[in-house]
Structure formats: C-alpha cells, structure tokens
Predict the 3D structure of the following.
Amino acid sequence: MRQLLLIILCALALHGLAGTSRAQSAAGTPVATQPPKARIFCAEALWCDLATGLGGNSVSPASVLTSPRIDPHDFQVTPDMALTLAQSSLVVMTGGHYDDWMTPLLDAQPNAARRVISAFDLAGLKPGDNPHLFDDPEAVGRVVDALARDLAALLPHKADDIAAAQARFHQMLDGFNARLKILRPRTQGMKIAVTEPVGGPLFAALGLEIIDPDFALAVMNHVDPAPRDVARLEEALQQKAVKALVINPAVETPSISRLIALAHRSGIAVVAFDEFPAPPLLWQDWMTGRLNRLAAALDIRN
C-alpha cells in the first residue's frame, strides 16, 4: 500500500510538472539556452561526489543518504525522492542488500533510457556477500569507470574533461594502493575485531585477520549474535588477543557498548570507521584518514 501511494503521488507530481511546461510553452515564454546537464540520482552521497568530480558543473546531483550515521537498511523512500528519480537520467546505487529500498523505487518507474550503475554488480558479488564497498579501492574504481563511460555519453561535449578526471582518479588510487603494499609486511597476520563488517577490503589488503566475522555479520543483518560468538569476542578483548576494535558509529547496541568498554579497560584501541564519507569530505581524504587511524591503532608508522 505504501509503495502504491508513492507511485500515485509521483505520477501526480510529474503530471503537474508537464502541465506547467506546456503552459509556459503555449504562453511563448522565452527559454534561455543552457549547457546540458546530466541529472544523477545517487542512493548514497559518495557516488554523486565521484560523479561531480568527473563531470564538474555539468552534473546535477541528487543524493539520498548524505550521513553515514543513517542506517540504510531501515531507510524509507518519500514521494519527493521518487519525483527526483523520475527526472534523472543516471542512477547510482551500492546494490546487494545494502540499499534494498532502491529496487522497488526503480521498479515503480520503468525507464529504458535511464542508466543504472550498481557497485555490487560491477564488483561481481553474489547475494549474501558483504555490500560495504565504499572502502574497496577496486570497487570504487569500477564505479568511476562506469560513471565516466555514462557521463561521456550524456555529456559528449565534456568527454575529454571527463577522461582526464578519470585518469587523475586512477592515479590517486595507484598511490593509495602503493601505500597499502608498503604497510602490509608490517600488518600481515595482526588480529583485530570488528563490530560490523566495515573496512573489510582495507583489512584484507593489509593482511589483517578478523577474529569475529560471524558476530559482525549478525550485527549487520540485525540479528542477535550467537552467545558463543559474543563470549569469544569478549574473551579476546579481556585477554588482549587483538590489536584493535573497529566500530561503526552508526550502529549502537548494549552489546557493542559493552565491547567498547571492555576494549578500553584492556587498553585496546577503538577505531571508528564510518560507512561512507559525509559531504564535503572527498573519498580519497576519507580513506587516507581511516588508514591513518588504523595504522596508529596498530602502532604502525610509515
């Protein structure tokens, strides 16, 4: 019923816009010639930030989730969002089960001409895989390439500028990955604990061992972790068997609060990893910042 109401409201809004356009045209109101812009609808702000970095002022972005403190799994769409989507020629989403609310929104407004980019699909993941891809340099690089391709098609007069921005982004990615390779010999095999599966690709690149993947997945899926998993994690913190506890500040539960308190009492560093950067923080600065915090927690300097 909620989705049906959403569709009806959106249809009425679009009809009103069309009527206004016809009236203005009939009245002979002169229309100033403006350079074409690509309207982009992004489920999460990061994707629109990347699009703007490629297309500059020729991109008209609309981001839904702009704060990493909002739980995307519980998010509800509004008629205004449906209207904005209907006016967009390019849609970018994380995909998987991260932003499930996007699928019915797209299904309610079929448009063969609209381009849709899913980071989850580009990464070649399968249902059930971890959808936290914001801190995966390879996955983000693939989204940048898809954005560059689609933006060049939508903005052919900006194709050269888009290609140059794409090349600069990959140059930055190469530098970031080079730093990970330098750090890996010193971080390989270190044990850490996480309260939710954020940072996975970064941890894998550094060769870190996550001791509580089942606990983290349960938290992500809003399921109570198994008592044995909770007990193992608490014991590891009490015995200082891990170098750091990584938390997602957007997820707060009594169980996680207890773990944080245990880590503090044991002298174990607690490192906050937001799910994605909040505007106006750029992706590269966000990633550098979290890598710096993690390296400091592991007592690694470079």
User: Anything to note?
Assistant: Residues 159-187 form the longest helix (29 residues). Strands lie at 38-44, 59-65, 90-93, 115-118, 191-194, 209-210, 244-247, 269-272. The CA atoms of residues 75 and 207 lie 33 Å apart.
